[in-house]
Specification:
alpha+beta, 4-stranded antiparallel beta sheet, 1 helix, about 20% helix, flat, disordered N terminus
Length: about 150
Amino acid sequence: MPAHTRISAKFLVAALTLPLFFLNSSRSQSNQSAAPFHEEVLAELTAGAEAKQILVGNHHLAWIEKLGDKRSARLDGQQLGSAYEDIKYLQFSRDESRLVFFGKRSRAWYFVDGGKEDSKAISSPTAVAFQPEGSSLAYCNAANGPAAW
């Protein structure tokens, strides 16, 4: 073998070994200086249930949970309102002080605000719209199917 080939091979071994040495050295230093990781459980899904819709806010976590043939709304892990056949239009107010949705029971939909169910049943609800800088809200009951605008 010619001499320049042996030198190239030695150089190649050194070139591959040296970066590994520095890489291992920097990893051990970064592991020592890294802040400890802290994990905190904010809410848990009920055993056997599945999450159908998830809302992630700045201060709260909400979702629709399906367990068997029933659905319930959860806010930070706590159930809001009753269990329903279906839930739709789960929505936070702008400041997240309110969580609203429609729950279906016996072919009728009920508006639920903060876990309190309105006693008036409606047949075909629409999405909820909150007043931009206030606490008022609006929704429609589209009788005979979807409303035409």
